[in-house]
Each structure stands twice: as C-alpha cells, then as structure tokens.
C-alpha cells in the first residue's frame, strides 16, 4: 500500500508553524490594506498615471489598496492549505511511530 507520508516530522512541524504565522500575518495585512491604512501606502503599487486623473485619483488608490488586500487574503488561503497538508504530515508521522514493523 502506498504511503502518503513524504515529509519527516521536523519538516512537517516547521511547515505547520510557518503556515500558522503566514495565515496570521497575511490576514492582518489584508485587513489593514482593505481598511486603507495610510502606513502601508509605500506598499501600494501606484504609478504617476493613477495620481493624474484628478477627482478619481483617490478612488484609484483605494482600488489598488483593495487589490493588494485581496491578494493578501488569497495568499493566506494558500497558507491554510499548506498548513492543513503539514498537519496531515505531522499526524502521519506520529502514527508511523506507533506502528510495529
């Protein structure tokens, strides 16, 4: 029977810890970007063209903020998937410890 175990116990635990941290950090960044936090203006990829449109310039910047926030939420969802995979690997490694060969 084929085993689904492809990570060792240390790599699986490391992946789980990094995934938890990534989800927390990226979810918080997504929240701050979608609330248009002024501190994060340096991380918004706007150009001079976005600023020249006059009355719609602020709306263009807000749309870019929202886009970056949604990208952070998507990355957090990917980290949730990787965390689930790492959790499964941790469980499989613990089960392997109890098997008698």
TrEMBL record:
Keyword terms: Membrane, Transmembrane, Transmembrane helix
Designated name of the protein: Ribonuclease, RNase K a
Membrane-spanning residues: 12-33, 68-88
GO MF assignments: RNA endonuclease activity
Annotated family: Belongs to the RNase K family.
Subcellular compartments: Membrane
InterPro entries recorded: Ribonucl_Kappa, RNase_K
Broad class of where this protein is predominantly found: membrane
GO cellular component, one term: membrane
Species for this entry: Cyprinus carpio carpio
Pfam families: V-ATPase_su_f
Topology versus the membrane: Multi-pass membrane protein
Keyword Transmembrane: yes
